[in-house]
TrEMBL record:
Highest taxon listed in the record's lineage: Bacteria
Protein name: Transcriptional regulator, RpiR family
PROSITE patterns xref list: HTH_RPIR, SIS
Record CDD domains: SIS_RpiR (cd05013)
Organism: Alteribacillus bidgolensis
SIS domain mapped to chain residues: 149-284
Entry-linked PANTHER family: GLUCOKINASE, RPIR-FAMILY TRANSCRIPTIONAL REGULATOR
Stretches assigned to coiled coil: none
Keywords: DNA-binding, Transcription, Transcription regulation
Length: 312
């Protein structure tokens, strides 16, 4: 009986390392890093773009990848052959397989419980890893996609926000802050059963923001598919490009997942940055809206008086 108990504990305690979970993955990325300084100018430009965004190969067409990287399709094909692949479809398939092999959010959560560095307080360990993930998130291409997303939101008649399961709290938090000064917000995260009813009434001049961190949801995917079919722009916020919704999104903002712990810090950072940027772009209207809300809340004795406002 004691032996059986020992076996059970061994199976529970034995958690694979990150490298074991992703054995053999990201070797394309390593190849790109190794050769980038030896390449001709255009191939080097493409290579540096892919080092920041190598999983984009898994979701973009050859033409789209060339356009995003600012090179010709011939340059893409030359680089692909240089690292040992006969065609774009071959390397694309391998990247997609790597994405499928990406550990789930629950693996990261389990890893957090066992990843204890010697002589380091948990506050320091978690904080340092969160900072690393944040720094890895903000790349040059990420900034460009962020700016495109802001432009799209500013020109949208309505902005629908959807977060489900582990991303539901993020969607609710984001929507609450945004609707305080940006009145075009429609929160979908509260009433999942009415998501499709509302999207059916949406127009091409409106935008859906889907927050879709792993593990991914079927409802999120089907919502994005419906938007895609109806020509409604979608901004996808995710921590893994293996999100099935990425194939149907207009803009994908991918935050960096931690390799050591489960964290949504990069996602919160992105959501709050969107809020700040939209507030800046609409500052006159936004400040006026915030003041009106604050005055009403104080008048109804819902909140305590708060008199700190930016100077006029």
């Amino acid at each position: 009986m004691g032996q059986d108990s020992g076996k059970t504990n061994d199976s529970i305690d034995k958690i694979p390392s990150f490298s074991e979970v992703q054995e053999g993955s990201q070797h394309i990325l390593r190849q790109l890093i190794d050769i980038r300084n030896t390449l001709p100018k255009k191939q080097k430009k493409l290579c540096e773009f892919l080092v920041d965004n190598y999983q984009l190969i898994g979701i973009l067409t050859l033409e789209d990848l060339a356009k995003k990287a600012g090179v010709g399709t011939t340059t893409v094909l030359r680089l692909i052959r240089h690292i040992g692949y006969d065609s774009y479809s071959a390397i694309k398939k391998e990247i997609q397989n790597e994405s499928v092999a990406t550990p789930s959010a629950w693996w990261y959560l389990q890893e957090s419980f066992t990843n204890k560095e010697q002589n380091k307080h948990s506050l320091s360990q978690v904080g340092e890893e969160s900072v690393r993930a944040l720094n890895s998130t903000v790349t040059s291409s990420f900034k460009k996609d962020f700016d495109k997303a802001i432009h799209l939101l500013l020109n949208s008649e309505k902005v629908y926000i959807l977060g489900l399961r582990s991303s539901k709290g993020l969607g609710e938090y984001f929507g609450h802050l945004l609707e305080e000064f940006f009145p075009r917000v429609v929160q979908l995260s509260h009433d999942i059963e009415f998501v499709f009813d509302r999207i059916v009434r949406a127009t091409k001049k409106e935008t859906l923001i889907l927050i879709d961190n792993a593990p991914f949801t079927t409802i999120g995917l089907e919502t994005v598919k419906l938007c895609h079919e109806r020509g409604i722009p979608v901004i996808l916020i995710t921590d893994h490009l293996s999100s099935p919704a990425a194939s149907f999104s207009s803009i994908t903002l991918k935050t960096q997942a931690s390799q050591k712990q489960y964290t949504v810090v990069p996602t919160i950072f992105l959501l709050e940055t969107i809020i700040v940027e939209l507030g800046r772009k609409t500052s006159n209207e936004s400040i006026a809206n915030l003041r009106r809300v604050s005055e009403i809340l104080e008048e109804k004795n819902i909140t305590q008086p708060f008199t700190f406002y930016p100077s006029d």
